[in-house]
Design brief:
The chain is mainly α and 292 residues long. The protein is built from ten helices and seven strands. It has a three-stranded antiparallel sheet with strand order 5-6-7.
Length: 292
């Protein structure tokens, strides 16, 4: 018996059906054999396609490339070089994100700043465009959990202490928003005491924007009604979830600098803070009232 014949016999034994009728003129397919070969050909085609696509991605012939570029380098030969690369690699979707060093650079192993924000919301929008609400919901929830921990630390929020550090998003985010409103209020009062009308208006505007955001309203509902919660997001339809994404995107913008895109933080950390600011100092709100 030839090697091919042995392999066919082994295959027939494994699936429990004869694939060929053997006779003196050769062989012919059984009904089971005809059904099997149709599906087998489809499987081989899918495997070949997968090899081509994955191989192309591995050779950097297809895929997505996001490039954060400093504003000072966004023109001239760097831009021309990147444009040439895009022309030579049409299978790669290239997106350029222009910004300042603090807004583009990666910090602490996580995507931060303008590049991170653009990538995150792009990923969520892509998932929604494909109707993958569960994927978009997971991405938004994961981001909110990470940001809530960062902001709780940056702003000095005071959630109920847990020895294991296992804080729920529904516990952290409401405390972060409450703390942010408190700090904006303190900044307005401090500016009033110093007679700084511009600083007072800036602080009050930030507080009003935060309080009026639909995202903040959603967070407040979580504390009252656990049924209105991110655990239900995966069950939403695309049209139902899109406003949720927009609401939280706008909410987070109330807690970062529009220029450098870094999260706001208090200084000094711990104790009684003197100011609420960002890395580039475009936001720098004094929290200390004028001594009487």
């Amino acid at each position: 018996m030839s090697a091919i014949s042995r392999r066919i016999r082994d295959l027939e034994d494994s699936i429990g059906a004869a694939l060929f009728i053997r006779h003196h003129r050769g062989v012919s397919l059984t009904d089971a054999g005809r059904a099997f070969i149709v599906r087998a050909r489809r499987a081989i085609t899918e495997i070949d396609t997968a090899k081509l696509e994955v191989g192309a991605a591995g050779r950097a012939e297809e895929g997505a490339l996001r490039i954060g570029i400093f504003s000072s380098l966004a023109s001239g030969f760097i831009a021309e070089l990147l444009e040439c690369y895009a022309q030579q690699h049409p299978g790669i979707h290239t997106k350029f994100i222009e910004g300042t060093p603090t807004g583009v650079l990666d910090t602490g192993g996580r995507r931060t700043g303008r590049a991170a924000a653009a990538a995150l919301w792009d990923d969520i929008a892509t998932a929604l465009a494909k109707g993958k609400v569960e994927t978009a919901a997971h991405g938004l929830r994961h981001h909110l959990e990470y940001v809530s921990r960062q902001l709780a630390d940056h702003l000095g929020a005071r959630p109920i202490f847990r020895a294991d550090g296992n804080y729920d998003l529904g516990e952290l985010l409401p405390n972060v928003l409450s703390r942010a409103k408190e700090l904006y209020g303190k900044a307005a009062d401090a500016a009033q005491s110093w007679g700084n009308t511009t600083a007072k208006e800036a602080a009050l505007e930030r507080k009003a924007t935060l309080s009026g955001s639909s995202g903040a309203s959603n967070v407040e509902q979580w504390a009252v009604n656990k049924a209105v919660h991110y655990n239900e997001w995966a069950n939403f339809g695309k049209k139902d979830f899109e406003p949720v994404v927009t609401a939280f995107k706008e909410l987070l913008e109330c807690l970062r600098c529009k220029d450098c895109q870094t999260w706001l933080y208090v200084t000094p950390r711990g104790g009684s803070p003197d100011s609420l600011r960002c890395q580039c100092s475009a936001v720098s709100l004094n929290l200390k009232a004028k001594p009487k």
